[in-house]
């Protein structure tokens, strides 16, 4: 075989390897089975071209293109200046509905960014190829930190303005704590005193006896007795003092005679 | 050496174009070096992925990112530089010895007397063949490195082919292999220039040829490493 032929074969082999590599990297996809969507954001939290797109946690596509478009507005008039073109496998396309949410999330040890699409409800319709949808902007950590600094500054200002009051409150709290501590020490001492212990024992016994007595008062028989007494008092109420006196005198006489 | 490079570069665009010499040299550079390069870079890739896994497990107790990291390292550095250093030893030494022998036996003077430009006749075909051959070998080395890494990660680290490719997707871009080819081309340009320089300046006797060969390998290796640094630094602004 001639040297030219051998070199030619090697050259063709190199081109084939390059093509296979390009196919594996997704640069060329002759058997593509994907659909595309445009997702609009105002803040994309570090997502890049080539970042994975996942539906219910499964990788189904990737971010193909990121476009800055300052004049872009959603149909409802909302401004969204960043546009992501994403490709999604047709097998997952039916799971993405018009009420699906498009989040930017973090995954993995190194915090890889990916676009997560929540599965929508079956009642809402499917997207068409090339539709525009508004994504959920991820929270901005820098903004939160900045707000935290602002809050801390305001708190400091309030404390500095009311320095006297704050000091007084702290002093009073200190006194209160000291007093509570003293009381607790006294209580501790009191519980260790023999006479107090005896007193407490007696109190416990009395409370036991009272419990026994009051327990009997809650019975059905006791309730009947209360009712009877109530009736008796109801009957006795119209009787005045002299009549009672007369009655007892007569009854007393009778008793005395018999 | 700079004047030799300039003359060679200009000679590329100056006729006569020596296709036959070019293909013969390309066969010498690419085809005959293929086996040794594939063998060596495959082992280098195996060591790389095993070491990466070991160190990642040691540091962060997790080696899930190893395929991606190893693939980036292979594509951006390992395959191109190992290929170039092997070629510097193999073809650099060969060129230096060949041109050196021609120099001490006054064959180059004879060429001049015949009205043949020695740079156009000897250096330009080798220069072009070395560039093209190193580029081709770099592509093959990259793919075989990745295949070795995939095989080892499947057998010893528990990554499937799909997991490896998926991890690669996070870090590797198609431009990496293009940059690797550009590196290969630059390394390929360094070797014949250095070899021809020492060949043309070869001293009389077998000792002179030996010195020319040794100096070629040493200086070409250093040149490759320096050019690698310059290109890596340049590409770091593009990645």
Characterise the protein shown here:
Chain A is 52% helix and 18% strand. By secondary structure, chain A is α/β, with parallel strands linked by helices. Chain A folds into four domains: 31 residues; 107 residues, no CATH class; 48 residues; 46 residues. In chain A, strand 5 and strand 6 form a beta hairpin. The longest helix of chain A is centred in the last third of the chain and has 30 residues. Chain A is elongated, with a radius of gyration of 45 Å. Chain A starts with a helix and ends with a helix. The model of chain A has no long low-confidence stretch (mean pLDDT 83). Chain B is elongated and about 70 Å long. Chain B has nine helices and no strands. In chain B, helix 1 crosses helix 6, helix 4 packs antiparallel against helix 6 and helix 6 crosses helix 8. In chain B, 87% of the residues lie in helices and 0% in strands. Chain B is mainly alpha-helical and 239 residues long. The mean pLDDT of chain B is 87. Chain B has one domain. Chains A and B meet through helix 1 of A and helix 2, helix 6 and helix 7 of B.
Helices and strands in order:
The complex is a heterodimer of chains A (258) and B (239).
Chain A: H1 3-24, E1 34-41, E2 52-55, E3 58-68, E4 82-89, H2 90-93, E5 102-107, E6 112-117, E7 131-134, H3 141-161, H4 163-192, H5 194-217, H6 220-236, H7 241-257
Parallel strand pairs in A: 1-7, 2-6
Antiparallel strand pairs in A: 1-4, 2-3, 3-4, 5-6
Chain B: H1 2-12, H2 19-31, H3 34-60, H4 66-104, H5 107-113, H6 118-157, H7 161-171, H8 174-200, H9 205-236
């Amino acid at each position: 075989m001639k040297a030219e032929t051998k070199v030619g074969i090697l050259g063709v082999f190199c081109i084939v390897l390059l093509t296979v590599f390009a196919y594996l990297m997704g640069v060329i996809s002759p058997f593509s089975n994907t659909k595309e969507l445009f997702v609009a954001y105002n803040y994309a939290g570090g997502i890049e071209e080539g970042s994975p797109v996942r539906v219910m946690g499964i990788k189904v596509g990737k971010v193909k293109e990121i476009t800055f478009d300052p004049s872009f507005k959603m149909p409802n008039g909302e401004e969204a200046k960043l546009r992501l073109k994403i490709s999604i496998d047709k097998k997952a396309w039916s799971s993405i509905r018009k009420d699906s949410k498009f989040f930017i999330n973090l995954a993995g040890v190194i915090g890889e960014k990916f676009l997560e699409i929540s599965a929508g409800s079956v009642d809402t319709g499917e997207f068409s190829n090339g539709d525009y949808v508004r994504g959920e902007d991820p929270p901005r950590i820098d903004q939160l930190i900045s707000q935290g600094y602002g809050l801390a500054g305001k708190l400091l200002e309030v404390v500095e303005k009311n320095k006297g009051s704050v000091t007084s409150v702290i002093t009073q709290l200190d006194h209160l704590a000291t007093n509570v501590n003293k009381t607790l020490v006294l209580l501790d001492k009191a519980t260790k005193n023999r006479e107090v212990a005896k007193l407490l024992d007696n109190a416990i016994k009395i409370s036991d006896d009272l419990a026994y007595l009051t327990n009997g008062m809650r019975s059905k028989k006791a309730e009947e007795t209360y009712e009877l007494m109530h009736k008796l008092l109801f009957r006795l109420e119209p009787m005045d003092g002299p009549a009672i006196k007369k009655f007892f005198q007569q009854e007393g006489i009778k008793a005395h005679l018999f | 050496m700079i004047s030799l490079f300039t003359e060679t570069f200009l000679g590329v665009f100056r006729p006569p174009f020596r296709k036959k010499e070019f293909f013969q040299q390309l066969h010498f550079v690419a085809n005959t070096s293929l086996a040794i390069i594939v063998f060596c870079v495959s082992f280098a890739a195996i060591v790389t992925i095993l070491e990466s896994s070991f160190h990642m497990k040691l540091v962060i107790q997790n080696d899930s990112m190893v395929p991606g990291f190893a693939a980036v390292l292979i594509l951006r550095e390992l395959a191109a530089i190992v290929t170039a250093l092997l070629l510097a030893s193999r073809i650099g030494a060969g060129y230096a010895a060949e041109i050196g022998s021609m120099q001490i036996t006054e064959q180059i003077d004879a060429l001049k007397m015949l009205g043949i430009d020695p740079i156009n006749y000897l250096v330009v075909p080798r220069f072009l063949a070395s560039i093209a051959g190193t580029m081709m070998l770099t592509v093959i080395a990259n793919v075989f490195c990745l295949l070795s890494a995939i095989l080892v990660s499947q057998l010893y680290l528990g990554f499937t082919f799909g997991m490896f490719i998926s991890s690669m997707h996070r870090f590797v871009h198609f431009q990496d292999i293009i940059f690797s080819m550009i590196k290969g081309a630059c390394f390929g340009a360094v070797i014949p220039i250095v070899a021809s320089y020492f060949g043309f300046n070869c001293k009389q006797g077998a000792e002179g040829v030996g010195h020319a060969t040794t100096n070629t390998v040493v200086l070409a290796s250093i040149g490759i490493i320096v050019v690698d640094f310059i290109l890596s630094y340049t590409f770091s602004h593009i990645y």
